[in-house]
Amino acid sequence: MSAYRNAVRIATFPFWAVWILVLIANFLLVSAVCAVFAAFIAYALALTISYAFLPAAWTQALWQWAADLYAQSIWFKAATITCFVFLFLPILRFWPARDPQTDAARQREATRLNDDLIAASQQEHLRAKRRD
Q1: Is residue 79 within 8 Å of residue 36, measured between CB atoms?
Q2: What is the C-alpha to C-alpha distance for residues 41 and 79, in angstroms, rounded to an integer?
Q3: In a 3-state reduction of DSSP, which class is residue 120?
Q4: pLDDT tens digit string along 7-53?
Q5: CA-CA distances (angstroms) from residue 84 to 13, 34, 36, 68?
Q6: Residue 130: which residues within 8 A CB-CB, separation 6 or more?
């Protein structure tokens, strides 16, 4: 029994090690995404505070810093676009607004057509059985 356990342990160790590496890589990736998202939230908060409480020159300097960083860094540009895409995806899901009655009527019509197709298929199947 001990030899069997050792053989199983030796055979499964590479899979276990690869699984741990996948978990570590996933953790690093999710951490990086969360850090980028948190940085953009912090930047938005800093802009909001600067608009509300700080002089206009400071707000303009903060915008200029972001514009310069956006122009110089491809990583910042990619992170900005990604962050805004993730920010606006839930909004775009509901825009333009759809009429609930029209959607319900369309769904009822699709269900009716589907039921008609199923009934026609079943009738054709019964006719084929009667012929045999």
Answers
A1: yes
A2: 12
A3: helix
A4: 888 999 999 999 999 999 999 999 998 888 888 888 888 888 888 88
A5: 42, 14, 12, 18
A6: none
